[in-house]
Design goal:
2 copies of one chain form a homodimer. In chain A, a hairpin with a 2-residue loop joins strand 2 and strand 3. Helices cover 30% and strands 27% of the residues of chain A. Chain A is built from 5 helices and 10 strands; from the N terminus they run βαββββαββαββαβα. In chain A, strands 6-7-5-4-1-9-8-10 form an 8-stranded mixed β-sheet, with helices on both faces. By secondary structure, chain A is of the alpha/beta class. In chain A, helix 1 packs across helix 2 and helix 1 runs parallel beside helix 5. The longest helix of chain A has 16 residues. The first copy, chain A, has one domain: SPOUT methyltransferase, trefoil knot domain (Alpha/beta knot), CATH 3.40.1280.10.
Chain lengths: 198, 198
């Protein structure tokens, strides 16, 4: 299983205009990330999952999870955005840590980023993508690694301390700052190369 | 200069619904490619260009070019799509190989894929991304390389023969078939790593 966590500090947590994702707290960038985590040319990555923690207004936090093994009826970024909107509408009354299935392979929970990474750290090696981290090409990666990305704003200092306490390993992909969606494509490429020789 | 050519066999060449890019011949995928060619977190790649050859209905071919060094006022995929639509509207009367400036850093020409790669081959090393090619990590890349991508449909056999005649080098990025936009992110990553050490 290849698993990703994206934290999106501004992405809306209440219904938004499906034709204006940029002004929904850069949900366009969130949809790019989900696409690159789960889709390849003509197929889904059945062995991949992504969790996106939305922390923008008006009802944060919300964690929406997409599972490539179960996903159906999603073909492009617009259909991803439509499902996120539907999930936000249906989840308005969730209590803390309660989870709701939205679609095959899509669920939403009233769960914070901190709670999510604490939960995941119990059985997974956390990998935090960071400019100052160790080069991914020189890093051994466990089968149960989960890759954690901040968004274009960056990760709050307090969160970085939590990740340190949870023994998240910092790795780097590039000498320059990329979009999270570009990072996800590069991580997948590294994992693909390790499992199937070119 | 880092330069890319994308051939999009179905992308519309007449005005389209800006809120339905998938049904405009997968212009959503074209916009993903332009984003990954030219944008990084918080900045433009000033040393990158991408040319997209659109060959869908109703007025093919059209080659639209984006130059990261001159681009202004483009912030997200929707604004890229709006500019493509504007370019298609303004270029309806162009004669063969005539070119029109649309915006700082954006131009459109009535030019075919074949003509474009023939023109570029005079002063550039053509690199054709192909599953059976040589691993990019083991390939020397010239400063003047241009990276050529087919779309999700694949490159017609006749075009592959032309690329062979123009001595395009075939290189491979991944053991699996990826979206062109994902390939562009991976090519940039390889070039970034070669110019600045991690």
């Amino acid at each position: 299983m290849k698993e990703f966590i994206l934290r999106s500090l501004k992405a809306k947590t209440s219904p938004f205009d499906i034709n204006d994702l940029k002004n929904a707290g850069r949900l366009d960038l969130v949809c790019n990330c989900i696409t690159n985590a789960l889709f390849i040319a003509g197929d889904l990555r059945r062995d991949a999952k992504i969790h996106v923690v939305l922390e923008g207004p008006n009802n944060p936090p919300k964690t929406i999870s997409f599972d490539g093994n179960k996903l159906k009826g999603i073909e492009d970024e617009k259909s991803i955005a439509i499902k996120i909107n539907e999930a936000l509408i249906k989840s308005s009354g969730l209590t803390l840590n309660e989870e709701l299935d939205i679609n095959p392979g899509i669920s939403i929970a009233k769960k914070s980023f901190e709670q999510l990474v604490k939960d995941k750290s119990k059985s997974n090696q956390l990998i935090y993508l960071h400019k100052e981290g160790k080069d991914i090409r020189k890093t051994h990666l466990e089968e149960n690694s989960i890759f954690i990305f901040g968004d274009y704003i960056g990760m709050p200092r307090k969160t970085e301390k939590l990740l340190d306490r949870l023994k998240a390993q910092r790795i780097s992909l590039s000498p320059i700052m990329l979009f999270s969606s570009q990072c996800i494509a590069i991580v997948h490429n590294e994992l693909d190369r390790r499992s199937i020789k070119l």
